[in-house]
Amino acid sequence: MPEVPEKLAELLEFFDLLSDRAERIDALTSFAERLEPLPERIARRPYPESHRVPNCESEVYVWAEAREDATLRFHFAVETPQGITAMASAAILDEGLESADPRDVARLDPELILRFFGGELSVRKTVGLLEMVNTIRRLAVQYLSTGQAGTGSER
Asked: Helix crossing, 21-34 with 6-16: angle to 10°?
């Protein structure tokens, strides 16, 4: 399995230590609350479908912004207010991939996101979260091949 970026690995270790279901839910809820609103300089509503994560029931949108240091900053909008799982995932990915090498992002195992939830997700939620990671991976691959940050919806 490819190496996980350092900050994301630290978050995985933290969640792996949470054996109590209530503690895990509290931690995930805390992360969901930390998700920053999408900056208007990135996009304004209504968001273009080209940025929408496919097969995600929480109506999640993702953007990648290239930084001067050749890393990507990912920005998320979760349009379903009840989408706590998607919000928590977006906040975890935002924090965990900050300053990550795009090559490492491109090689992420999509299933790593499931470790944060301790195996208690419905099939529909699982598919949506896997697609969030796949979208980020596509954004990183696009950036590595073109030098441009894009929508991630290209296949």
From this structure: 150
Query: What CATH number does residue 28 fall under?
Result: 3.90.1010.10
- Based on the number of CB atoms within 10 Å of its own CB, is 79 exposed (0-12), middle (13-18) or buried (19 or more)? middle
Locate 99 and state its tokens: 């300053």
3-state secondary structure of 59: coil
Count of the separate structural domains present in the chain? 1
Mean per-residue pLDDT of the chain: 92
Query: Is position 153 within any domain?
Result: no
Residue 75 lies in a domain: yes
pLDDT score at 151: 54
Beta strands in 7-141 (DSSP E): 60-66, 72-78
In a domain, 155, yes or no: no
Q: Give the global pTM.
A: 0.92
Confidence of residue 55 (pLDDT cuts 50, 70, 90): very high
Q: Which residues contact 111 (CB under 8 A, 6 or more apart)?
A: 130
Q: Dihedral through CA 90, CA 155, CA 109, CA 62, nearest 10? A: -10
User: Domain range spanning residue 110?
Assistant: 6-146
Beta bridge partners, 75, equal 63
Helix (H, G, I), strand (E, B) or coil at 63: strand
